[in-house]
Design goal:
281 residues, 77% helix, single chain, mainly alpha
Length: 281
């Protein structure tokens, strides 16, 4: 027992920023990659049964359940309050949907300015070996939920929440968004034009977590966003973006609709975040 006590005290003496970043990366990335391991080891059918079970256990443990008992309270705080008032649910759901819509609208605008690199976006997301359209959709939804739940727990929970307390919400949100962006730069789709979109998504999710006091709206918004990313942009099972850049077509109605939709979606997301902050402050 004395050995575990010494280890605990050494960890506690480390700077808050270091502990928050390391914990957030570990909790987020380890959890999110369990799904990939299950897919490779057992195939899509067994993995699609096992992963939801894992996610339930993951959420239970990350929110303060299970051993070790000495870290239960710290885990509960890092996970943030898991409950929302009826008004919190209302504005949180609007924020989640509007967030996902704004990200996809931003991508449409990007690829009306520059050509859409289909091959680059499809690297590592080939579902052709999975039999049947229904099973492919199951894999897409579970992939999105795994990323949404685990990455939000890690980045907006375990990383950002302690930094909010130790420093300020502004620096905590920026830190989690920067690391969120850096950890996605190794993807084939992470070209120069995608960097501000990923960073913007991280900033919005971090602000939503802080304003609502909960990870639930972030998890929902992230999952909805990723369903669209997996199904449309990355795998093509929901179709392929074929619009040409405005440099070739000129300014057309489709481009102005995308810009207008982006402004409306972003405005709805920011308004909902503001309302959530008023509810929790």
């Amino acid at each position: 027992m004395s050995g575990s006590g010494v280890k605990h005290s050494v960890w506690e003496r480390l700077p808050t920023a270091f502990r928050a970043i390391v914990s957030g990366l570990a909790i987020g990335l380890i959890g999110a990659n369990v799904w990939s391991v299950l897919l490779i080891a057992f195939g899509p059918v067994v993995a699609s049964i096992a992963e939801p079970v894992f996610l339930v256990v993951y959420l239970w443990w990350a929110s303060g359940g299970g051993p070790p008992a000495r870290t239960a309270e710290a885990r509960r705080r890092a996970f943030r309050a898991p409950t929302l008032s009826p008004a919190g649910w209302f504005w949180g759901l609007i924020a989640a949907v509007a967030f996902a819509a704004s990200v996809h609208a931003a991508m449409v605008i990007l690829f009306r300015l520059v050509p859409f690199p289909v091959a680059q976006f499809r690297q590592g997301y080939d579902l052709s070996s999975i039999p049947g359209a229904q099973l492919r959709w199951v894999v897409v939804v579970i992939s999105a939920a795994s990323a949404g739940i685990c990455e939000e727990t890690g980045f907006r929970g375990y990383m950002q929440q302690p930094l909010e307390v130790r420093f300020s919400p502004r620096w905590a949100i920026l830190t989690s968004a920067v690391f969120f962006t850096l950890l996605h730069l190794n993807k084939g789709w992470a070209g120069l034009g995608m960097v501000p979109i990923v960073l913007g998504a991280g900033l919005l999710l971090g602000t939503l977590a802080w304003a609502s006091g909960s990870l639930i709206p972030c998890m929902i918004g992230h999952t909805i966003m990723d369903i669209g990313l997996f199904a449309y942009w990355w795998t093509g099972i929901a179709g392929t973006f074929t619009a040409r850049p405005i440099g070739e077509t000129g300014l057309d109605a489709g481009f102005f609709i995308a810009v207008g939709f982006f402004v409306l979606a972003l405005g709805a997301c920011l308004t909902s975040i503001w309302r959530l902050r008023r509810l929790t402050s």
